C-alpha cells in the first residue's frame, strides 16, 4: 500500500504549516486581496484556515475531518455561494504554488497534487468565462 500524499508531505503537522503559510501569503500578497475579500464576505480567514486544513487533510488521504463535520466534501457545493472568477482561481493556485515552494515540498506526489488542485480550482470558476 502506498503512502498518502498527507503522509508524503509529513503528516498533519506539515499540512497545518502549509495551510497557515498559504493564508499568511493570501493575506499579505497583492494577488490575495480578492481572495481575502471573498472570505471576509463569508466566515472570515480564521474560519477558512481551519476548514481548509480539515478539507485538505481528507483530500490528501488523511482523516476526513471535513466530512465528519459537514457530511460531504463536494467542493462545488462548498463554494456555490462564492463568485469565483478565473483570475481568482489562478491567484489561488499561484499562491499555493509559492507556499509549496517556500516550504520545500517537491517530488512526484507534489506534482500530482498541483495538477489536482488546478483541476479543482478551475472547476470552481463560476463567474465569467473559463478557459
Structure, described:
There is one protein chain. The chain is mainly alpha-helical and 131 residues long. The chain has one domain: Globin-like, CATH 1.10.490. Helices cover 69% and strands 0% of the residues. The chain has 8 helices and no strands. Helix 2 packs antiparallel against helix 4 and helix 2 crosses helix 7. The protein is globular and about 40 Å long. The chain starts with a helix and ends in an 8-residue tail after the last helix. The mean pLDDT is 95.
Please describe the structure with a list of short key phrases separated by commas or semicolons.
131 residues; mainly alpha; Globin-like
Present the secondary structure layout.
Blueprint: H1 5-9, H2 11-28, H3 33-40, H4 45-59, H5 65-70, H6 75-79, H7 86-102, H8 108-123
Distance between the termini: 37 Å
Q: How many beta-strand elements?
A: 0
- Number of helix segments? 8
Q: And the CATH topology?
A: Globin-like
Main beta-sheet strand count, sense and barrel state: none
CATH hierarchy, class: Mainly Alpha
Structural shape:
globular
Give average pLDDT, whole number.
95
